[in-house]
Structure formats: structure tokens, C-alpha cells
Amino acid sequence: MPVSSSDIPILIRTLRQRLGLSQRKLGEKFGVVFQTVNNWENGRTKPTRMAMMLIQQQLEQMGEEGSDLLEKYFGK
Description:
Largest sheet: none
Distance between the termini: 10 Å
CATH architecture: Orthogonal Bundle
Order of helices and strands: HHHHH
CATH class: Mainly Alpha
Number of helices: 5
Shape: globular
Helix content: 55-70%
Number of strands: 0
CATH topology: 434 Repressor (Amino-terminal Domain)
Strand content: under 5%
Structural class: mainly alpha
């Protein structure tokens, strides 16, 4: 079940805050520029399929701290 477009900004912002990263630093982590992360968080664009896979992998690596987001947004 794909993440709904309206949920993406919340997912990205929550993930970034839990990691304690700026938009620029999160962008570096996922191989995109600051403006891309800003667009995701503001609902102007949505992550590519590859970026969503990286986001899911990041949540999996976070263990307990990311498990609620994994379940809510990825059904895992």
C-alpha cells in the first residue's frame, strides 16, 4: 500500500525531526538537494519510488524509533 500524497509531508518532517537533521542534511543523506526535501515537506512534490525505498530503509534501520512510522506509512 503506497503512502498517500497527503501523508508524505508529515512522514518526511517527522523522520527528519527524529533524526535531528536539517532539510539540507536529510537531502544529503538521500542524495537530493535541500529544495527537494523542502518541496516534499510542503506537499509541492513527492519523493520518487527510489527515494521512498531509501526512506523506508532508514526507518527500518532506526529500529524502535522508526517502527511506528514504518507501520503507519508502509504497513510493516
